[in-house]
Fold this sequence. Notes:
Blueprint: H1 3-11, H2 18-27, H3 30-43, E1 52-56, E2 58-62, H4 90-102, E3 107-111, H5 120-133, E4 138-141, H6 144-154, H7 158-168, E5 170-172, H8 183-189, H9 196-208, E6 213-219, H10 225-241, E7 249-256, H11 263-267, H12 275-288, E8 294-296, H13 299-302, H14 304-310, E9 317-320, H15 339-348, E10 352-355
Parallel strand pairs: 1-9, 1-10, 2-3, 3-4, 4-5, 6-7, 7-8
Amino acid sequence: MNTENIFKKALNLDFINMEEAKYIYYNADITELMFVADQIRQKLKNFIDTDKVGWIIDRNINISNICVSMCKFCNFCRAANSMQAYTTTIEQYRQKINELYEIGGRQILLQGGLNPDFKIDFYENLFQELKKEFPDIKLHALGPPEIFYIAQISHLNIETTLNRLITAGLDSLPGAGAEILVDRVRKIVAPIKCNSQQWLDVMRIAHKINLPTSATMMFGHVETLEERLEHIIKLRNLQAEKPLNNYGFVTFVLWPLQSKNTVLEKMYPIKHVTASEYVRMLAISRILFINVPNIQASWLTVGKDIAQVCLHAGANDFGSIMMEENVVASAGSNNKLNINAMQHAIRQAGFIPMMRNVKYEQQLNN
Length: 366
């Protein structure tokens, strides 16, 4: 086994396996990995315009901070009897969405955790109300753990749950709650959430009914490199199953754990992901993930400068300006970009900013 043969295989847009991925991760120079990942990015020009880098204006709105999962990396969630527990009101949604509209955004990332009081009718009513008041708002909402939980407590199967939510207004499904799709890891960091297979099963059904989705990975905690690669390969294999011309995973986002004051940090020795480790992992993701068109650099967790480097290591998207982000911020991230700074950062890296929607369709800049 040698790096030259593995890179040749990757540049031919063939799937490389776990052992090959491990070999180049440990043995290839980071500049080699970045070069090969960038070449693959350019070879995927049927999917993406290689001169452009995507970005979006959206707003995170948490439906509630009540969640029974109590993941060990989350400082945001509260028990139902907590004095700090809340559920967002329609008046608050109205204010937040109007503020989003004022700066040109038309999408909200809507998440709320595992709340035993919220069965499917709660979400149907919420989505319908939001669409009634804001007909052109796009709801990028929930995630596989929430879908699985809603189905369970509503005594429905996954497909029925998704179809009812789509009818109510769901436009796309984020890849939230993936963490690492290996049960050894999930039992440590998020033991109450659905397991790896259940997460994948929700996404398989979403792909079957052609609901656009994203894929994610939160790394840099208790997982091994092999488990990171297993996570990506599981996602890649699921993407390979999707019906022809269906959306499947439109993008892949990876970010390092933000662990400040979390239970996880107190229980386990967390070695924070370095800048070079993040770039290396992102490049490996692009090399492995040849059947997912877009790779997003997480400026929110690694900062603007490292995210710009990632645009030369396989990434072609800068994500959102993240108007109102609570979960990552509560664990120590304080990076911020406004609309002008986002576009300037992309141009500074040598690319053309392309305002997009969740399907990576170009939108007109305001």
